[in-house]
Amino acid sequence: MAGEVDNFADIFDNIGLNDTSRLNNPSNSASLGFIKELQAPFFPREPARGPTFLDTEACLCQREFRPDNPRELWWRCIGDRTQNGTATVSREKILRTSGKWFEPSHDDDVSSNDVLGLPLYDASNPPARDRASQWNNETSELVPGIDKLSVWDRACTGENRTSFSTSFYRAVAQTNADEAPVDAAPCWRPGAVPLQLQGVSDWMDNGCKLGFQCVNNTVNSLPQFCPPFALCQMARLGGRACELDGKNIGMGPFEPVVCQRGYYCPTGGRETIKCPKGTYCQPGAATPTPCAVGSLCPAGSSSEKFLIPVGVLILVDILLIIGIILLRFRDGLANSMHGHQSKIPKQKQNITVGNLARALTRRQPYKRLSDDHEAGDHEMRAMNAMTGPRRDIWAGFQGALDRPPQAYKDDETLSPEIQAFVNSMRKATDASNIGLSFGYENLAFQPKSGDKFILQNITGCIRAGSLTAVMGGSGAGKSTFVNVLMGKTQYTHGSVRVNGVPGKLKRYKKLIGYVPQDDVVLPELTVYENIMHSARVRLPPTWKDKDIKNHVEAVIDCLELSHVSNSLVGSVGKPVISGGQRKRVSIGMELAAAPMAIFLDEPTSGLDATSASSIMRTLKAIARLGMTVITIIHQPRMEIFEMLDDLLLLGNGQQLYEGPEDGVRPFFEKMGFSFPQHANFGDVVTDIITGNGRPYKKSGDISKEALIANWAASRAHLQGGIGTPDSSRPGTPDSGTPTTVSEGSTLHVPGENNKSKKRLSNISVISKLEGMGSHNTSINRLLKKRGASRLKQFRLCLSRAMLQQYRSLSSLWFELGLALLAGFLLGIAKSSKSGILFAGTYHAPYEIISTASDFKSAPELALLTAIAIGLVAAAPGVKVFSEEMLLHRREAEAGHSRLAYFMAKSVSVVPRMTLACLHFTMPLLLLSSPIIPWGIAFLTNLDYFYCIFGLASAISMVVKREDAPLFATMIALITGILSGAAPPLSKVKGWKMEWLWRSSPGVWLAEIYFGQLVSPLAYLYDVDLAARATGFTLVRLWLNLGVLLGIGTIYRILAFVGLFAGKKLRV
């Protein structure tokens, strides 16, 4: 019970167990015999007469004659009334002289006999407590002092304790009435025998244990354990203390009672004080625990409600919403300004080469095209224009098609926009010739895991400034050939030269652009932002930002994208711009890097005929300006086919033809193939080289093997001096364009057939580039200064990643909402505990009165937290990289720093993780109210978010994009289960499998939670026993946080390795 006991018999009445028949035997003395042998200070062992009371130390004080002066009545207080005599001192003498003696406060007004006839409760002449005496056996008299007294008698105070005395008086009355002395019983349960918990020495040295009420315990009423009633036993088995009217009680007057929750019991256990405002007191509190600043803790609290995190969360969300609104307003204002600028008369604008195209083409902000607009070639004209811009005013790169070859050398023959692009290219390449030539001889490629050659006997060259198409059927080796020239695939036989110089092709990757078949661009960025990022990363670091912007604007102008430059690109599933425009953006990302050669994989795939022709005219114009363009193309329409300068036809990994486009028809006609009138020559050629040329040759062998043999024979014939190449094409000596190929390579003739190993000599149409050595030195110098530093790339990639998240706010809101819901549901699930998430075994010697231990609630909270965070963070963690793997590979192959990209993406999600963690942790701690400090809980959860994001990133590197979210969620669930809650870590140690659990971040999270929830209760419970039972360590907070951080970092290291090997590892 809280406070002192006024009437112990009332407990029986309140509980409904007032049947004392077990004590009411026929002989009262027999029924009380067992009490006489126990510590029972309320039990009247001898008939009482005269004023009597029990003092504060449960000593029996009564008026008795002095042993050395029978005429005087003094007060004698006796402590241990169960003491017996010794061999030298008789019991009678002990009973007559023992105890602590006090003089009365004043002389009695009546005779001694009248005093002994007064009621027991008479307090008219109390003891003079400042004058204590003891019996001196040597002098046989009472002498001042207490040094010779026993420990029990020495403790007597002579101060009446009303509650003790009242119980004693009732017991006397019950005994006199020959009834069971209920108030004197040591246990409430009838017939129960108590078990002493503390001896005299332990009590004198330690007193009541911290966290307990020992209101009735003294050296003469030591703590005892009493067998509980059934209801109390059920309560204890359920983890609750025995209660009566909402207050904790013991099963006897001297049984210690754990301090009530909402109250604290200071040292000594004599007081039970309500927890003051601003603090909280859990069950067994010895001192109130101060609440954190800003927490809600009214008087009598057993836990604290964190309010500052709630305010922080609300403030962060409000600021986030306001910031988004302001940014949206700024974007809308910027779009309005662009729309207003388009209405300003041209003569009032500051017309420069860099803004000429925008002045002619930019209109109102670009909006998404409806489905009925997809059929036309709308990307070729401004949105509000009734017709396309006049060709003589502006036609993008295609304006170069109306000029003769090499016209880019004459500044006056090109439009200002094209000339601006050419000037930027010259500045980037430090040369007047902005193209690369490729020569290859006996080129072959054989995979390490196979015996079959994918490429073999490929000899020839690709001229600088030419538009060359690589054609062939499926499995012909087109992609492998292009990958070899770009340095992506290392050839196994033969040689390749760039501008006549042999060497590793990978070193030229910064001078080569590659446009994949799929338009690999970021949908969250605008046209301008996609191209600008590529330029800033890949252009020389010496370029000023103004120069980079001018170059990008020139590229956009020449690609006729000015009117959509501020439009988002959109995804394939949710397009914002048309397919043709997406392809131009993809090309623009490469042109922004000022490459000297550009490779394209089926650039017309997926486009309508008009858009495909537009793209090919643009590529033709780019080649006309001097850049080398190599493209894989499949079944081009007639118009596109005739745009090509050169063709390389492949079949079964070998050459079927290499030469000018206009020479392919005569070549096959000599083999007996006929080209129908008005037929699409591209389709005819495709049918022939795929072995389906029977409609064009009625008899004879049409197989690819026959075509290979025929080309080998034709090449040998040309080697003998027959055949005249077309000298009007760019790259031939007569055209004025120098050809930069190596010795031993040919332009239109392969160097060998399948069986010959003889090297062909040069034919006269291939001339060497004058000053090849100096030009090569210039390229080496150019390679060294291309590309931004890693630090700058990190800043650029970080800025881009943050912009992507801003443009994908719906996913951010969904993620935060999911985190908030998970924290709310988990908090609701644990709210019934009222913050009491651990109950252990009390310290000895009170362990026998312990309630049922609860070692599981703390690890279970950690388990559920780990699972919830895994469910919240796994899928977003996958999206960090999985959505951009194709783009990253494209950028990495172009020379972008993988480390800068990876670090930027990892850092960019830290704010996202922090916000998600805040939305998860706030409702969880608000509703479950654990005693773990909020800051530590938040930091721990954030560490675990960091681990799950890292784990998901690593998984996204090796699992297919469509499968990665589910796979990551499953793995995150497994790591949560391996937290050591179930099965307990202690059992796992017995299996010798602790290393597996320790490899999971979940067990370190659980150890932090367990330690923080259990360690503060070490004064009350045997927490070391709990630690051994669960297998956790209690005092490794910062080590555990560091390990979590380390595991998350290791996951990221594995993810970074996956950037290199992930393509091969993906399942």
UniProtKB/TrEMBL annotation:
Residues annotated as domain ABC transporter: 438-677
SUPFAM superfamilies in the cross-refs: P-loop containing nucleoside triphosphate hydrolases
Record bears the keyword Iron-sulfur: no
GO MF annotation, one: ATP binding
UniProt xrefs under Pfam families: ABC2_membrane_7 (PF19055), ABC_tran (PF00005)
SMART domains, A to Z: AAA (SM00382)
Assigned keywords, A-Z: ATP-binding, Membrane, Nucleotide-binding, Transmembrane, Transmembrane helix, Transport
UniProt topology in membrane: Multi-pass membrane protein
Compositionally biased residues, Polar residues: 725-745
Compartments it resides in: Membrane
Main location: membrane
Membrane-crossing segments per the record: 306-327, 812-829, 861-881, 964-982, 1002-1021, 1033-1061
GO cellular component, one term: membrane
Keyword Cytoplasm on entry: no
Stretches for region Disordered: 719-756
Superkingdom of the source species: Eukaryota
Protein name stated in the entry: ABC transporter domain-containing protein
Protein species of origin: Podospora fimiseda
